[in-house]
Structure formats: C-alpha cells, structure tokens
Amino acid sequence: MNISGGLKITEPAADLAVIAAIVSSAFHKPLPKGSVFFGEVSLSGEIRSAHLSYSRIKEAQKLGFLQTICSYKTQDFDQNKDVQINKMKSIREILGILTKQQNKTHN
User: Fold this and answer.
1) Domain ranges of the chain
2) Fewer CB within 10 Å: N-end or C-end of the chain?
3) Residue 50: closest CA among 21, 28, 72
4) Is 20 helix (H, G, I), strand (E, B) or coil?
C-alpha cells in the first residue's frame, strides 16, 4: 500500500488496520478508542495470523491499548486482565465492532 506523501507500507500485518480504517471511513463510524488492529488479509477477506503475534499484543499492552483485534488463528496465551483480545475470521466482522461502538456512544 502506498500512502500520500511517499510513505510505503510493506508490513503484511498492517492489512487489517488499513481495512478497518477504510471501513470506518466508508460507513462514517469510528473505530473503538484504545484499539489496535493487526493481521494479514487474504483476497477473500479472511484474516490470517501475523508473525510474532504474541510480541505485538504485549507491545500494544505496554503502549496502553485496551483492545486488540487480530486473527482467530492467533494462539491463546495468558492475557493481561486490562486488555481484551478479540479474534476475527473475516473483515465482515469489522462492521460488528463498529455497530457495537456506535451503540455504546448512544447509550
């Protein structure tokens, strides 16, 4: 993916974050605050696990993220009680996250 201004993203795990941002923008619904998205996305929309998922989640915890959204294939491990890990099979599930987020802001 190329970003205006010349930045080029080559990290496959950024696929899910980029797609989440596009879906959020297209539907005019914000992504959940304090969330981090990572995972490779296939042409069919399946979310694949990213290399070094455990390290990525631990780093997100250190940086203060409250929620991690990643592949359903990501291995389980002892979670920090302050961070929620949501696993997704398909990019279609992003809409569910946006709908939940919108319902929270309206209640």
Assistant:
1) 12-100
2) C
3) 72
4) helix
Overall pTM > 0.85: no
Residue 14 three-state SS: helix
How many Cβ atoms sit within 10 Å of the Cβ of residue 9?
Answer: 13
The hierarchical CATH code for the domain 12-100 is 3.30.230.10
- Beta-sheet pairing, 40-41 with 47-48: antiparallel
**Residue 75 to residue 15: CA distance in whole angstroms:** 19
Tell me how far apart the alpha carbons of residues 52 and 32 are, in angstroms, rounded to a whole number.
24
